Amino acid sequence: MSDSRKHSKIAELHQHLHAHLPPDPALRVKALEDLAVEKGLVARETLDTWVEMYAEKVGPKRGAEVIARAWTDPEYFTRLREDAGQAIKDFGYEGHATEHLIAVENTDEVHNLVVCTLCSCYPFALLGMSPAWYRSTAYRARAVREPRAVLSEFGVTIPADVKIRVWDSTAELRYLVIPQRPKGTESWSAEQLASLITRDSMIGTQRELVLEGGE
Question: What's the whole-model pTM score?
Answer without folding.
Answer: 0.75
